[in-house]
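Hey, can you fold this one?
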Amino acid sequence: MVVGILFDRAVPTSGGTASLLTTISKELYSREAKENALQFVVCYYGNGHCFREIRNGYTHYDLTAARKRYFWKNVWKSFICLIKNSRSQTHSGDRHFSNASVLDCLANEEQIDAYWFTSAILEKVSKPYIFTIWDLGHRTLPMLPEVSDCINAWKIRENTYQSMIAHASYIITANQTGKKEILDNYSVSGDKIRIVDFPLASLVYEKEEKPRIELADEYFMYPAQFWSHKNHIRILEALDVLKKKYNKRPVVYFIGSDAGNLKFIQKRTKELELEDQVVFLGFIKNSELVYIYKHAKGMVYASLMGPNNMPPYEAVYFGCPVIISRIPGHKEQMGDAAFFFDPYNAEELAEQMFCVLEKAEYTKGILINSQILKSRISENNYVKDVASVFNELRSQIQTYKRV
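Sure. Predicted structure:
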């Protein structure tokens, strides 16, 4: 069975998107994946210069080039049909040529049996496919600018999910909370949904490198782009509480690129007089991020959006205590391996940060549980688990073709 894996455009500074897609890519190129009974090919959105090439043992198809290729092929076929029809004075030409999707054309020409959408990509396709859903933030947090600021932002997201969920053979989500969100928001059978936990990010296997700046003796860290749903503001407010109520002034390193909310967070940092405690590192190398994880007092993960996220797993792997927002997905993801706080309550977050700073026994039990969680997630293999879903799909496809 030949499976085309679709990768959306992602750059390293795009945060979790790039991290997960990079991890999937590295799993795909591993020896274990290459020995899988399925035959994978890679489909991506490139510069349009090369339609097909072999890299890392896999055939890669540039969908930008493929779109051009099939457009002109279909125009030519339609033109030939038009000439034939005009000569025979009939009107039964193969009009479907001009309407065929790039994925269907590619599948027909390259013998691809099914597709895996690794993220929320909108493409017309009649071939069987598995669709991956990371979050439904536009539904759960529609008031936030990143999902509604642009006139069509919400509609574009909604159209993608409505279209792709309806026709998907199976849907992949990371946990039961994600499954519940899908069922609560869309008319789809629960039998179509499969749970595949996030993998450990590939960065956990990189060597550490000390950052160029001198790190504080006591610090927390938060690796997240500056979206409003990442809730950096609550960390600032918690630092203000720590300073006034507990007389504690830990440093927090914000690690991530601007996604529209950076200026607001910088402004609030000045207004709360926290310039000596908040450091904006921007986008840094993975090796430096590893070092910061290993030497931090803890990671504060304040995100409002789930149902789960990759950085908490990274922190667990490096033995960094996790203080995380109490949303249903995070509770399911982390279990007893993290400290939880109400993401809208700065006092509660400040109390958790104070306990991590001052009470060593407070973190001992959490770190023991973290080691148990680490053992479990270290066995995660995202590509292998998704491949097992394709094996289910294969049995269904075999009712009408040999795969």
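The domain at 2-199+381-397 is CATH 3.40.50.2000 (Rossmann fold). Let me know if you want another pass with a different chain boundary.
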